[in-house]
Design a protein that fits this description.
heterodimer, A: 311 residues, mainly alpha, 13 helices, B: 136 residues, alpha+beta, 3 helices, 32% helix, disordered C terminus
């Protein structure tokens, strides 16, 4: 069995230094990019996530080892396997991430990462405490069943996580065009964290933006529609426990109060914002209203132009 | 994860937050006028068509009324503005120049709008009576 290091452990000191560097840049460019209480909440959520991961990690490893006895192939540590495992792990991340925004059960964990109204490197570390509970690890397990070594998969997942750190910044505008075409970048990921209707449920990529381009979920960042970060119903609080558990509490309240099993299941598994009486907004209803209002504005502008006297 | 690593991580977390505070990061925003409040409300609630706004004299909060009888409540939150949408007039109470809007959320809190006595009375009457327009 090959022993591979946990790349995330080695990256942590670099994370701390880069947060500090970005803070110093922000102080010169735009001090509102950081807010001390928001930074503290994000970093404490990150620390809690690491603790939760340490507590449940052995169960995930045990499950992967158990599943590996049913593997289809015996793949060794050959060069092409490394390339394939990085690609498959990134694809698995895309699938997980897309569902994490479209199924409230997964969203209840993932919303923590989006619940800051800031977009900086501390936001990258704002991670869930309940990933194990929401079964987010299950999306990578098919790779074990194919027959890739478990250590190789975990190493690739660690590298993927590290990659996603640096894209949480406003300090970098655009990367070279070839890079923007293939890889996830700060610009692409700013779109993902934005609540502007145009940007909702777009750019789910981990490392490679090609999955979004292939699946029709890609949206480029526009200079005339600057991203507004956060969630549709921003927390309005820096309370750590509320940030960690608010959506789970919301699910529990909805399930407890709504009549009918179909409605109860809807509040757990349908998209975030779904309600049995249509009284809340999903990203789809928000987008529809936005398209309608955009259409009205464009029609109004066209009428205004037509009403102008010809020169 | 060892206890030493956990203590080290927590020390780094508090150090970074303290540095952010020492550097003076996160300027508190102010809502300057009704125009800005209406723009913020449109950003917060897709398709919202604002008709008029009550902005607290300290710039810390605002209530924006919409064409369809909906309302958007705005208040500062750190270096940003947080919003709440009401499909109908929210519960309010008035104490002279102060209008307090109930959100029903303990952690978001009720909102205190210092509107001046005349505006507070007008908005209070409107929200209590469900009038569609406030006459200046």
């Amino acid at each position: 069995m090959n022993e591979l290091p946990d790349p995330v452990q080695y990256a942590v000191p670099a994370f701390v230094i880069l947060v500090l560097v970005e803070m110093l840049i922000a102080r010169r460019v735009d001090p509102s990019r950081y807010e001390p209480k928001d930074t503290l909440t994000s970093l404490l959520l990150g620390t809690g996530s690491t603790v939760a991961g340490a507590l449940t990690g052995s169960i995930v490893v045990g499950l992967a080892v158990w599943l590996s006895q049913f593997r289809l192939f015996d793949i060794s540590f050959v060069w092409w396997a490394w390339i394939l495992v990085f690609l498959l792990d990134d694809l698995a991340y895309y699938v997980f991430h897309r569902l994490a925004h479209r199924v409230r059960w997964f969203w209840a964990s993932h919303v923590i990462h989006h619940s800051s109204q800031h977009y900086n490197l501390s936001t990258a570390l704002r991670q869930t405490w309940t990933g194990f509970f929401s079964l987010s690890f299950a999306f990578s397990l098919p790779i074990v069943l194919i027959g890739f070594p478990i250590e190789m998969l975990f190493f690739a997942s660690g590298v993927n996580l590290i990659y996603q750190f640096w894209i949480h910044t406003e300090a970098i505008n655009r990367m070279p065009r070839w890079f923007e075409a293939i890889f996830n970048t700060p610009s692409h990921h700013r779109v993902h964290h934005a609540t502007n209707p145009r940007y909702l449920d777009k750019n789910y990529a981990g490392m490679l933006i090609i999955w979004d381009r292939m699946s029709g979920t890609f949206e480029p960042e526009r200079d005339d529609d600057r991203p507004r970060y956060g969630i549709i119903k921003n927390l309005g609080s820096f309370n750590l426990l509320w940030a960690a558990f608010h959506e789970w509490i919301g699910i529990a309240k909805d399930v407890a109060t709504v009549p009918g099993i179909k409605n109860k299941l809807g509040y757990v598994f349908r998209p975030p914002g779904w309600s049995h009486d249509g009284s809340r907004d999903t990203s789809d209803t928000i987008k529809a209203r936005w398209r309608e209002s955009e259409g009205q504005e464009q029609t109004g502008a066209r009428h205004d132009r037509e009403a102008l006297p010809a020169e | 994860m060892s206890l030493t690593v956990l203590i080290g991580s927590l020390a780094a977390v508090f150090a970074l937050a303290a540095i952010a505070w020492l550097l003076g990061m996160g300027r508190t925003p102010r809502i300057a006028d009704a125009e800005q409040a209406e723009r913020l409300a449109r950003d917060a609630h897709s398709g919202f068509v604002p008709t008029d706004a009550a902005v607290s004299r300290d710039g810390k909060a605002a209530l924006v009324a919409g064409r369809d009888g909906d309302f958007v409540l705005l208040r500062e939150h750190g270096a940003n503005i947080a919003a709440r949408v009401f499909r109908q007039a929210p519960d309010i109470r008035r104490d002279e120049a102060i209008l307090t809007v109930a959100t029903g959320e303990k952690l978001f809190g009720d909102l205190r709008l210092d509107l001046g006595e005349a505006d507070a009375a007008r908005w209070s009457e409107r929200l209590a009576g469900g009038h569609s327009e406030v006459t200046a």
